[in-house]
């Protein structure tokens, strides 16, 4: 029956299935630990098929990291609406919630970016740049957030602050509640932007 | 003459010389790129001698990272004195100055910690913990900086903020001056601590 199910998948469905499985294996491990053996075993496919879709082991790993980055961007998009404060706050909260909810995968992404090869670092850097650009380009936001090099530096640094604070908290909350954590990292942005005004 | 100079070095001087050279080679590269070949060439010593002092290539690399971490701790020690605000500010400024001045080596340290093995990550984490502990244990500082889990989380996150902001600025200052950068990262600590009060 597995074989029947397998043959029924269209190529794009199969690729999708492999990526989803890769993301799951990636969460909580480093990029180099994404095991092609475990992947072939769990997906019931041959190594050849993985090479067919992704070119190489490295190609597969990069596709998984790219998918993790795409997920982050998609899930933290500002909602539709006219109120720039509400949009900014919603996007900010979505980002914080995303990092807290996906902390294992997020840690893997951050580690992959720091320790990985140029291609992986590029994926992470582009995702981070896209999030920051999007923040500054939200219509109406210019009154709240002046688009200057100093402000951009601070917003980027705030992302590093969020990453570190959330991942440290996930390892060892020390009595700080999830609500307190969310408030700290959300309030940190206006606090930091305030110092460059 | 080189040979004569070489033979005159005492073992601890030789070890010191190799570490200093290793630090220089480390600055601007990743830990895996510290080339033992270049080291033997520049120091005019044999590979055997390096293994003699450090056990293995990995042992040497770890000793270099440990030395980088020790330097950071030593150069950012709070000065003698009775005024806790002055001591805290001096230590804070020293840290910011250190990261700006040694940004290449510091980037290597951060990358090594993120991508490196457990031993290297441990060295970096202990250095960061030591700096944070020292901040909270400065006599008289408790009125300025309550020692709570939330405050510790924020101070640790601030270190990540400083690292990211300074290293991004070093790559591309975009017209932000060194003075502005120093003010941003220094002012960021009270701004962040303020939100958990």
Automatic annotation (TrEMBL), chains A, B:
Residues of the DNA-binding region: 35-54
Superkingdom of origin: Bacteria
Protein name (record): TetR/AcrR family transcriptional regulator
GO molecular function: DNA-binding transcription factor activity; transcription cis-regulatory region binding
Gene3D superfamilies (UniProt xref): Tetracycline Repressor, domain 2
The keyword Ribosomal protein appears for this protein: no
Domain HTH tetR-type: 12-72
Transcription keyword on record: yes
Keywords, in A-Z order: DNA-binding, Transcription, Transcription regulation
Pfam families assigned: TetR_C_46 (PF21943), TetR_N (PF00440)
